Model the fold of this input.
Amino acid sequence: MHIAMISSEAAPFMKTGGMGEVVFGLAKELAKLHEVSIIMPLYKGMQYIKEDDILKKKPFREFFVNIAWRREACEVYKVNLEGVNYYFIRSDRYFMRDHGIYSYHDDIERFAFFTYASLDLLASFKNNKAKIVHLHDWHAGLLPFLAKEEENYNNNFSKTKFVLTIHNPAYQGLFDVRALEEIYELDRVYFDDGRLEFKGMVSTLKAAICYSDIVTTVSKTYRDELLSPEHGMGFQELLKEKKDYFIGIANGIDTNYYDPEKDIYAKHYSIENYSKGKLSNKKIVLEELGLSDESKPLIGFVSRFTWQKGLGLIFASLNDLVNRGANIVIMGSGEKELELYASNYMNNFPNNIKVIIGYDERLAHLIYAGSDFTLVPSLFEPCGTSQLIALRYGSIPIVRATGGLIDSIVAYDGINHDKANGFNFINFDASSFLQSLHQALDIYYDNKWLFKRLIRNGMKTNNSWKKYAKLYLRAYNKAIGK
Ligand code: GLC
Done:
């Protein structure tokens, strides 16, 4: 089977969050048995192989894309990595930009270009061989719609099935109907008759939900949450109509890359000798960041900075944490306001709190390897990656009981020491969060036996892609059998 993933980002070439890792992790696992491609833009600032080096190759394809009443040149470059074929869509006008890969005034046009270019590339494959086209989030959301509704394309895709994975439905690809005509060059009848209309706008995510054969999201519990008016973000009725064709499949992590026994950045340790191993990593983190005292609990938070991630709760509890003798390391970047707040808190507690604005892969690994606890107090969390990495490195997750965090963390409840691998709290408020923090710190200080037990339970948890890739294959086959 040929599976083509369409994504705005994919590790190791470009990742800004969990989605980029998921696309690569899943693709790599599937590629052991199937032909797998990833189609993504060629950005400025590519990681792993620089764009200049990719551009030294001969283009795999060259064509023009009709967009916004212009003909835009497009080149495609192909790179094979770990069995996965990456196809990079090149348009310097749209993707060679200086300030990251998202949040430009013309994002709608940039990703409309990406959508059409991906479609043309897929159509150019011999025998239209992609059986499954697997989309991720809103960026190329109109692709299945175009493939099914537009005459130019539908001959090419009669045998193709479309699968959408929703990673974060807060991003809906919304735009004014005028852009449907002016950028996508489509008739506004699709909006007027309701097919593409969502909350008075066009939504590429809605289009993807409606026109995909199967929709998945990244955990079972988040699937159920999306069906409720409270958490469905307006998509609940559409998703309900999908019935058995809307499925929750959790994310795995790359257990080779995130492996305390052979990590490329951290001191190695296993479940047998983690105590010593984690301590040496803790020392490195403390020393590098100018903190002190490895007998203190070290608490880590590595994440994008958005309100979704519960940074407000963390800020509200810093005082208490410092009073209880903890060191806290916060790393990430995102919303400027949050970056500013975080830096101010660091200045208030210079001996106990370190904030690193930005993302440093090496330091991230060291924080997971050296910390005792990892915070994931999200408002909502479709799956979450941080808690999965933390488990693997024996850093006990303290999470809010929501979405994928419910499914991946067995919270300690006073008696389940044989299974528990973390702590959780239910209400999104500082006092509930603090309660779980105190529970965790009490155990750190007063019950070493239990503390170690939770670490070991966590390190034993299996979240490898092997487990979840099988479920995707089942979903693909279900789409094919539809
Ligand atoms: C989004 C979600 C996160 C999920 C990730 C990968 O970033 O917010 O919960 O883990 O996508 O699926």
In short: The chain has a mean pLDDT of 97. The CA atoms of residues 17 and 304 lie 7 Å apart. Residues 17-19, 22, 167-168, 218, 251, 381-385, 404 surround alpha-D-glucopyranose (CB under 6 Å).
